[in-house]
Amino acid sequence: MLTLTNVHKAFGSNKVLKGVNLTVEKGDVVAILGPSGSGKTTLLRCINFLERADKGRLKLGEIDISLKHAHSKDVLAVRRKTAFVFQNYSLFRNKTVLQNVTEGLIIARKIPKDEAIKIAKEQLDRVGLSDKYDAYPNQLSGGQQQRVGIARAVAVKPDVILFDEPTSALDPELVGEVLCVIKALAKSGITMVIVTHEMSFARDVASKVVFMDEGVALASGTPKEIFVDCQEPRVKQFLARFNNEIDYNI
Amino acid sequence: MNLDTDFLWSVFLKALAKLPVNFEIAIVALVVAIPLGLLAAIVCNNKVPVASQALKVFVSFIRSTPPILLILIIYYVKKSLDMQGVIKIDPIWYAIFIFSLIEIALLTEVFRSALLSIPATQLEAAESIGMTKLQGYRRIVIPQVLGVALPVLCSSITDLVKMTSLAFALTVVDIMAIAKIEGGFSLSFMEAYLAVSLIYLIVVFVLERIFKIFERFTKSYADK
Asked: What ipTM describes this predicted complex?
């Protein structure tokens, strides 16, 4: 359903992506793992055209466009079929929780206001925020803000939701509540691509794991293929700590 | 020194009758300058080629020239136009024109710094759920920019109201002109100027009260 081919992206002389391929089928939960600076976030941002890739193609349903030369009309079409969950939540600070969710429905998708409010309330109830409709983002905890971020993304009924390290800014307790919500979404069959450092979450929830390092997708497969059977040294090294094989000597 | 309080009071009332002139200049200049200043700030911060450089030159020019100098320049433009008899425009329009230019330059800088304080992800979040850039600016970024800029905006509006007193140099009959005229007739400049300063004192006091109310209004979502 979503296919990326040969994506390249450089910031100045710093080559961040060096020919990444990625295939996501309908209903997949794809976890992208890898060390910091390996290009995971950049790849995700290129899908949503928050960054312009230097090279590469994107196929999403009927849309088949160049990542570099896409017209703004196609960019808008891709964005209306995808949604993005940000690491730092990025809720609209001048809008209430409810307005954060209805904004994309009313303004971008031209859904009538009462219907948009109904959808928004449904989604907010689903992430357990039925008592926070009228709160402003700065009145919420990080975990609550991220759940609003997820509700905002789900409400627009995207073909695929892109999560950019959704729990990296949260403390361990709040991580739990956000991961619960994502897990429930995964079970309901929503297609998702998740960049994350939550290894056990990737192992338990993902249907496919992609390991990225230095701008390439080094390995991909089922969680078992990556976590247990993978013979690629860099992957084994990265997962060593998670697999409790690390010693603390420098 | 004896203060002629009766004369002071009479100038106060006469000048007060001309206050709408100063308000008209200030309000029209603001109505022009707020949207254009916002637009200019967005253009500058997005580094739009040519336009952003041109705006930088314009802003530096206006900011580095004393307002009275700009007014005197415009005054001689007005005089030569009047003498050629081509067009005769009410001097208030020259005042509005020059104060709009000054205010655009000042507000461009005010909005530019406010824009820089809004994280880029606010616009990205809007775009990521399918809003156009224009919708993102209009509904998400600009309301926040206005909220952040409000305190500085208020003080620059106060400055503008005070600056309109320079319009008398363009032969606009405003409250300052009344003070000059009345003072000239009676040679009691002290009373005349005191009357005008009293008016400004009241106006600025009221403006500050109003702005305080606005600020409370935007505080509901401003970051703690």
From this structure: 0.88
Which residue of A lies nearest to B146 if distances are taken between CA atoms? A94
Q: Which of A90, A107, A153 sits opposite B121 (nearest CB)?
A: A90
Q: Which of B55, B212, B218, B46 is nearest to B143 (CA)?
A: B218
CB contact (8 A) between residue A153 and residue B130: no
Distance CA B81, CA B206 (A): 39
One CATH from 2.30.30.180, 3.40.800.10, 3.40.50.1100, 1.10.3720.10 for B20-172: 1.10.3720.10
Rounded to a whole number, what is the distance in Å from the CA of B213 to chain A's nearest CA? Answer: 18
User: What are the tokens at B14?
Assistant: 């006469």
Over 50: is that where the pLDDT of B224 sits?
no
pLDDT tens for each residue of B45-85 = 999 999 999 999 999 999 999 999 999 998 888 888 888 87
Kindly state whether B127 is in contact with chain A, defined as any CB-CB distance less than 8 angstroms: yes
Interchain pair A103, B129: CB under 8 A: yes
Mean of pLDDT values over A86-95: 93
More confident residue, B221 or B36: B36
Q: Which residues of B20-54 are buried (b: 16+ CB within 10 A; e: fewer)?
A: ebbebbbebbbebbbebbbbbbbbbeeeeeeeeee
The boundaries of every CATH 1.10.3720.10 domain in chain B are: 20-172
Chain B residues with CB-CB distance to A153 below 8 A: 129
DSSP classification of residue B140:
I
Smallest CA–CA distance from A109 into chain B, residue: B130
Share of residues in chain B with pLDDT > 90 (%): 61
Out of A137, A138, A156, the one facing B130 most closely (by C-beta) is: A156
Of B121, B130, B140, which has the smallest distance from its Cβ to A86's Cβ? B121
Query: Which residues of chain B neighbour A95 with C-beta distances below 8 Å?
Result: 140, 221
Quickly state the pLDDT bin for B215 (edges 50, 70, 90): confident
Comparing CA positions, the residue from A41, A42, A37, A62 lying closest to residue A53 is: A42
pLDDT tens-digit profile of A28-82?
Answer: 999 999 999 899 999 999 999 999 999 999 999 899 999 999 999 999 999 999 9
Please choose, from the candidates B42, B43, B38, the residue with its C-alpha nearest in 3D space to the C-alpha of residue B53.
Answer: B43
Nearest-Cα residue of chain B relative to residue A135: B221
